[in-house]
Amino acid sequence: MMRRVSTPAAPPSAPSATLPPAIRSIQDLAVLERAAQRVEIPGEKGPMVWHAWRPVGPPRAPTRPPVVLLHGGSGSWTHWARNIAALVAAGRQVWVPDLPGFGDSARPPAGGDADAIPAPMEAALARLFDDAAVDLVGFSFGAMVGTLMAAATPSRVRLLVLSGAPALGVNPEFRLVLRSWSGLAGEALASAHRHNLATLMLARPESIDALALEIHGRNLARDRMKLRRLSRTRIVVETLPKVRCPVVGIWGAEDTLYRGVADRLAPALANAPDFRWLERIRGAGHWVQYEDREAYDVALARALAEAA
């Protein structure tokens, strides 16, 4: 039985302003951020920073769980900038943390990888939502964190959506070579970021726009969890059997991490007892929710509706 969704302990102080329907520029990103409520959850080494948006107008009935979006490695809430408006327009509260050690959030109390984050995340969720369940959507590193959270605290997660999750054990020989950007400035720095976005994150050259470069550069500069290694293990595929909620996958069909082995994705995700389906979005890379916002939003809306 679904738990009743309680009012968060620290809700947005006012309904979010009208959001840009499509985040295409740095200016749009600034409008989106100004419409959010910034919430800081105290922690042992400093606060965990969240951004929250809620629909304009009276609440829709029945009340549905908050949607919590978990960003990728070397990221922040901005990995989800293009997807927030559609969720809010559909009547959902959207809560996006800067995971501990990334963005504006302090490092976790101990550890430096995905397994250090579920405990402080659960403490933050308990403070925000008491014991209510949430719909959890994780991208890349955030998909590892979300899987570990769903296994550790089953009652907390009503639905788990994974995108670009590593550590599924289907491509053990894969190696990625990125260009060093440390110490660079100006066009040399921008060139390194373009190369790395094309190598890992985005499949189409035109997707590497000024906004993608800005988001990527800002986030890299605030990454304090640089010695992560769990993405090269099998931790997600080995944890999925312990996940009791429905699991859905939404992937970019051109995700670099799974090029040539995409047929192995669904069998790996099916290690979850209640795996529902996998959608692969044509022409999109690893950062699928940015590269093809419209297709991703449709697939995510389907997953959320089926979980209702």
Short description:
This protein has 308 residues and is an alpha/beta fold.
Strand tally, please? 8
- Alpha carbon gyration radius: 18 Å
Uncertain segments:
1-13
Helix content: 25-40%
N/C terminus separation: 11 Å
Helix vs. strand class: alpha/beta
What's the arrangement of strands in the largest beta sheet? 1-2-4-3-5-6-7-8
Mean pLDDT: 93
* Domains (count): 1
Helix tally equals: 10
Secondary structure layout:
Layout: H1 26-34, E1 37-41, E2 48-53, E3 67-70, H2 84-89, E4 94-97, H3 118-129, E5 134-139, H4 141-152, E6 157-163, H5 186-201, H6 210-220, H7 235-239, E7 247-252, H8 265-269, E8 275-281, H9 288-291, H10 293-307
Describe this structure in words.
The protein has 308 residues and is α/β, with parallel strands linked by helices. It has one domain (26-307): Alpha/Beta hydrolase fold, catalytic domain (Rossmann fold, 3-Layer(aba) Sandwich). It is built from ten helices and eight strands. It has an eight-stranded mixed sheet, sandwiched between helices. Strand 7, helix 8 (265-269) and strand 8 form a beta-alpha-beta unit. The radius of gyration is 18 Å and the shape is globular.
